[in-house]
C-alpha cells in the first residue's frame, strides 16, 4: 500500500490531495497544527508546527513514506528545514508552488522555461518585494521553497507543481463563492471586461489528482497546472453561476478602461478579473501530456455551489475580506453605465 504524508490537509488543496489519495486506498498521514479544521475521514493525523524543529523531528519518526506532499510551505528556510528532516524517510517530495514564481507573471504568457524569480533556499519571511502588477514576496519566497526542496531531496526525487488560479469546493479565498452569491442575488450584475475573455482556472480536485498521479508514476520535474489556454470564458463562468443558482441575473459588462478609471481593484473587488495579457496564458501542455485532466468549468461551479449551500460557508480567512465589490459601489458604476 502506498503511504503518503501531507503537510497541511485541513483547508483546500491539501484536503483535496488527501481525498484523492484515500479514494485510491492509500495510507495517508496529515501533519498540521490542528487549529483550522480536520482532514477528511480516514486520515491519520499528527499535530505539530512545521516551524518547530522538535515537531518536525518527531514527525519523521512516524515514517517512512512513499511521498510527502507539501501544501503549506511558504517560507524557504522552513521548507529547507522540513525537507532536511524528512529526506531520509520519503522517496519523493511533491511541492505545491504557484505561477507567481515567474518573473513575468501576470504580464506575459508563460511556460515552464520562463524566467523564475531568484530567492535563496534559506531565505526568511522578509525576502523579496511586492511590485504593483509584478513580482511579490509570495512569489519570491515560493521560488526559494522550490529550490530548498530540490537541493535537499534531489531534483530527480522532487516534483514541483505550479498551479494558476485554483477553484472548487472548500475555496477559502472566496473568489468563486463571491460570484455565486452575487449572481444568486439576481438583478443587474456588474461584469468585468468582455464575456469572451478566456480563462483557465483549474479545479482543486484535478490539481490534487495530478499530484497523486505524480506520486504513482514517480514524475520528476516542474509542471504548470492549469486548465488549457482558452479553456472557457468569463461570460461562460458567469452564465454557469446563473444556471446552477437558478438566477435571473442580468449581466452588465463594463469595459476594462471604465472599471480602471473608476478605481476598481483588479483581482479583489472584481474577483478573477485582471487585464494583463499573461494572466490566463499559462501553458500547461507538459502536465496534460503526463495525465492532467480538467473537468468542465460548469462542474466546478455546480459543486462549489452545492458545498456553499450545504455548509453555509462564510470564510474567515484574512484574504476573503479583500474579495468583492460593495453593493453601493457596484450600483454607482452601474448607474454611470446607463
UniProtKB/TrEMBL annotation:
In this chain the NAD-dependent epimerase/dehydratase domain maps to 4-225
Protein origin, superkingdom = Bacteria
The record's listing under Gene3D superfamilies reads: NAD(P)-binding Rossmann-like Domain
Q: Which Pfam families match?
A: Epimerase
Q: Mind telling me which InterPro entries this protein's record contains? A: Epimerase_deHydtase, Lipid_A_modif_metabolic_enz, NAD(P)-bd_dom_sf
In Swiss-Prot or TrEMBL terms, this protein is called NAD-dependent epimerase/dehydratase family protein
Q: What is the lineage of its organism?
A: Bacteria, Bacillati, Actinomycetota, Actinomycetes, Streptosporangiales
